[in-house]
Design goal:
By secondary structure, the protein is mostly helical. It has one domain. 64% of the residues lie in helices and 0% in strands. It has 6 helices and no strands. It has helices spanning 6-14, 32-63, 70-89, 92-98, 100-112, 120-146.
């Protein structure tokens, strides 16, 4: 039998572990703990950029007095609220609302176009990332819909059973 090298062990442990990183496990085979981890990563992935978008919109309104960014700020707040609800309740309507994030960015590029500074490769990369994000959001919606019916994971078997105490007679 071939011994696993150290990098393979870490890849298996942190990148391709079905329990810790269940991104390639089909939704009907997920356990609740796996779904919790996947939704948590999605929430973090969505909350960080939309917090930055909110702060940038507020900065534009305060610094430049440009109040056309109020709609951007309100949309960012609504996405952040949906993320909080999704994380707390695993609600599929909140997950469904989260799909508007990549759709809104795609709509922005359709209406306004790309920057003149971006080359064709940059535009393709942006589109691939946005379409992948959109596809992954569909998976999160499926997970949130299936969440109430997902089985609880079995208790870990590596924890030794504690001896029971019996009082002396």
């Amino acid at each position: 039998m071939r011994r696993m090298s150290s990098w393979e062990k870490y890849v298996k442990k942190y990148v391709w572990d079905d329990e810790r990183t269940p991104y390639l496990v089909s939704v009907d085979k997920l356990k609740r703990r796996q779904a919790d981890k996947e939704i948590f990563i999605f929430v973090v992935f969505l909350a960080i950029p939309f917090t930055l978008i909110l702060l940038a919109a507020i900065a534009q309104m305060v610094k430049a007095g440009n109040y056309e960014y109020v709609f951007v700020a309100l949309f960012a707040i609504s996405i952040l609220a949906a993320v909080v609800v999704l994380h707390a309740t695993k609600s599929w309507p909140a997950a469904l609302y989260c799909i508007t994030a990549p759709l809104a960015i795609l709509l922005y590029f359709v209406v306004n176009g790309f920057s003149a500074k971006q080359g064709m490769i940059d535009q393709i990369i942006i589109l691939v990332v946005l379409l992948s994000w959109l596809r992954y959001t569909v998976r999160v919606i499926q997970i949130a819909r299936a969440y109430p019916d997902l089985p609880d994971p079995p208790p870990p078997s590596d924890i030794p059973e504690l001896p029971t105490f019996t009082p002396p007679d």
